[in-house]
Design a protein that fits this description.
Layout (H helix, E strand, L loop, with lengths): L5 H21 L8 E5 L5 H9 L4 E4 L2 H11 L4 E4 L8 H7 L2 E5 L2 H14 L3 E6 L16 H8 L5 E7 L12 H16 L10 E3 L6 H6 L4 E4 L1 H4 L5
Bound molecules: pyridoxal-5'-phosphate.
Pyridoxal-5'-phosphate binds next to strand 8 and helix 9.
């Protein structure tokens, strides 16, 4: 596996932080309202430790089994967002391990999460994953289904729906993501007006990855999820 050295990780994080600040200032936003989730999938615990040393405290993981060992090893030093496709039969362990689940896209999954959270006496912030670009290869609720899904989720007292997440159809040109990010923001504004998000939290828009996060910030992202630009290429 190609592992970036601690020095490189620290430098990459600094570069991204600078870009977040510059981009936020250019579009009149407060950089403090943009959270960087470092996507550590396919990288070992030692690499996460290096990022923690460099000051990063929030990480994103895609695979339950892989994440479990890493989160247990890291302990309380960091918090973790689940950003992969979550099968209902993995809801129990996800409900136990993660601080935020960004990829809720069905009532069945929400019901399963809530059931286990009640047993664990935990509450959990969730985002609804929206397939905003209607990409047949991507999971996520359709934009038109999101309102109904949130209305139904309101019955689950241990889930706090705080916003929307999306991954647009892949295009190496980050500008191609702009229209999708804009649509996600407009959808979130509409759902906020209808009071469908938790009143106890600020509304989150999780969008933007290594190649398009500046565009996402310009379009209103409050959470950006970056892997490659911090840790280097993943090996599959
Ligand atoms: C892998 C992944 C990322 C990070 O992608 P990079 O291109 O490596 O920055 C972000 N979001 C999701 C949902 C991912 O699966």
């Amino acid at each position: 596996m190609l592992i970036e050295t601690a020095m490189t990780i620290s430098k990459n994080l600094q570069k991204i932080t600078n870009t977040i600040q510059a981009t936020a200032h250019e579009c009149g936003r407060d950089p403090d309202e943009i959270q960087l989730v470092a996507v550590s999938k396919k990288f070992p615990t030692a690499v996460i430790e290096e990022a923690i040393q460099a000051g990063q405290t929030v990480f994103g993981e895609n695979y339950i089994q892989e994440a479990q060992g890493k989160i247990e090893e890291i302990g309380g030093k960091a918090s973790f967002h689940f950003i992969g496709h979550l099968q209902s039969n993995k809801a129990k362990i996800a409900a136990q391990l993660f601080n935020v689940i960004e990829t809720v896209d069905s009532l069945k999954l929400a019901a399963n999460l809530d059931k286990h959270l009640k047993i664990f006496q935990r509450t959990l912030r969730i985002l609804i994953q929206v397939n905003i670009g209607e990409d047949p290869n991507k999971s996520g609720a359709a934009a038109v289904e999101t309102e109904k899904l949130l209305l139904d989720i309101a019955q689950f007292s241990n889930l706090h729906p705080v916003g929307l997440m999306t991954m647009p159809p892949y295009n190496p040109d980050g500008e191609a993501s702009r229209i999708h990010f804009r649509h996600l923001r407009e959808l979130a504004e509409n759902l906020t007006e209808k009071k469908l998000f938790s009143p106890h939290h600020k509304v989150e828009l999780s969008m933007g990855m290594s190649h398009d996060y500046s565009v996402a910030i310009q379009e209103g992202a409050t959470i950006i999820r970056i892997g490659t630009a911090i840790f280097g290429q993943r090996q599959y």
